[in-house]
Amino acid sequence: MTPDAILALYRWVLADCFRCGRTRVHAVRLDAIGTPSGRIYELHACGHCVLELEEERQIHAERRGDVYQPGALGA
């Protein structure tokens, strides 16, 4: 699957990338972290980081003998 096809699997918003620190970029919401005080911080990743994370997922799936299915970050 091409990088563009992988990126097309996601919904994009303007946000800061938690991984590389780029600010106000098109990014994918991955998860949220809640603090004991009740504050919620959302984690987003930019396109470059999404592709790196997808590559890590693919390597992990192959090592386990699983079928890699892109598009599941944050699922």
Give the C-alpha Rg: 13 Å
Give, in spatial order, the strands making up the sheet with the most strands. 1-2-3
Order of helices and strands: HEEEH
Q: Give the overall shape, derived from the CA principal axes.
A: globular
Number of separate domains = 1
Number of strands: 3
Q: What would you call the structural class?
A: alpha+beta
Number of helical regions: 2
Low-pLDDT parts are none
Described by strand count, sense and barrel closure, the largest sheet is: 3 strands, antiparallel
**What's the overall average pLDDT, rounded?**
96
How much strand? 25-35%
Q: What is the terminal-to-terminal distance?
A: 19 Å
Question: Percent helix among the residues?
Answer: 25-40%
Description:
This protein is α+β, with helices and mostly antiparallel strands and 75 residues long. The protein has one domain (3-64). The chain contains 2 helices and 3 strands. A hairpin with a 5-residue loop joins strand 2 and strand 3. The longest helix has 18 residues, at 47-64. The model has no long low-confidence stretch (mean pLDDT 96).
